[in-house]
Amino acid sequence: MAPPTTRSKQSDRETRRAATRDKLRRALQGFHEAGIHYTEVSVEKLSAAADLTRTTFYVYFDDKVDLLVAWLEDVRAAAGSAPSGWTVRDRAPSRAQLRQDVADARYRPHTAVLAAARDTALFELRADAAYRAFVRSSIDDLADHIERGRHGGWIHPDLPAIEVATWLASIVHRTLSATPPLDEDAYMDRIDDYTDILWNTLYRGLAGPGGSAPGVVQIPTQSRPRPK
Amino acid sequence: MWTMPGDQHASTTRLEPPGQRSRDERRHAIVARLAPALEDLLDEGAVYSDLSVAALSGAAGISRSRFYVYFEDTGDLLRALTEDAIVELFDATLAWWALPQDGTWEQLRTVTERIFATYRRHRHLLRAVEQVATHDSAVRQYFSTLFESGLEGYAAELAEGQTRGSLDPTLESHRTAELLASMTQSGLYELTATGQLDNPGRWIDSLTTIVWNTLYAPTHEPGQDGAPDHA
After folding, report:
1. Closest approach of A193 to chain B, Cα-based (Å)
2. Domains in chain B, please, with CATH?
3. Whole-prediction pTM
4. Gyration radius of chain B's alpha carbons
5. CATH architecture of A77-207
6. Which chain B residue is nearest to residue A121, measuring alpha carbons?
7. For residues A171, A177, A183 and A189, what is the CA-based torsion angle, rounded to 10 degrees?
């Protein structure tokens, strides 16, 4: 085991690395809001915007991709690894519930990192792998939800789970990774549009205004408290 | 990025300086000669933004200085190279919103198939556009303008369908078209990147179902059109 002094030096370095990462992330946020892509910003420019020198940057990070992968881990930690909102339900949500759940997207505060990740993933294998794993987890959550619905009779049994989840997740991630970020009005409009597409695609045929199809379990429409 | 035929190059009515037309023709000829060679290079894994003017003019069989007679830079060349592909994709996608009132899931699937085939044919150039757009603001601006005008066309078509009663009247036409088009674009990009575009059957089915359920299912009674088998 390493002596205590070494360990505390180690953790000091970790703390400083995290602080540097946060400073750089605030700088990223500024570029993102101005409509500038991470792929267009040099290490020099990014560091300067964070009041750091290029040398300091390289003390803590190998390159921009290394930094980006660390940011993605931060986002994952902050947003939690549990599946989001309505996808954890074991039944069809009401339309209003669905809209609320979509609006509660946990990734919204992290759009600058998601935009940087998506752009960098177009060029860089390491970024591509990290971003792909990130998107994959939301595809899997939604695919599980569809599977449960198919078996539970509240999603059409022939709806292909993984494929539909892949397409649907791609719209969500595309919006989240827009540069510059959507303003509040445009964002709220998107929420309505997603709700339409998700509702029509997943539930409408069985839970829609026309009532349930013959031979299909009636969907309870009363809401219950959302699982925490 | 599928979009509509821009009017940037098509204005035959505009008065042009003498020699303009033949310059355009020469520009087109260079593009036509370069396209297959470039597709091969990209297919072998080259990244468009890494290709120099020297490499590109070499592949087109022209000198570096002649390159600049016809193109401002490599981004300008990319715009010229991808215009036809984008027009084709726009045409293919337009049919999504224009299914007749008694249209079926199968008819919609045929449209989706054509979108996939068109994308597949031009996948390398379309991928290059996505990449270059992240760091070249002129390219980004050009394609987002094209995409916007494409959306106008989609939205108009969708709204007409709503008036005819062939698709869900409650949808906001412009944004719904935009979301479905950009979903398709990201999804196809992803399928290309993971090599799944070579065997696309289930992806064509599932995308068709999403578009069907979103646009047409609400106005088509289940059990009458074959949709429930796939919905």
Report:
1. 6
2. 16-71 (1.10.10.60), 74-229 (1.10.357.10)
3. 0.81
4. 20
5. Orthogonal Bundle (1.10)
6. B131
7. 10
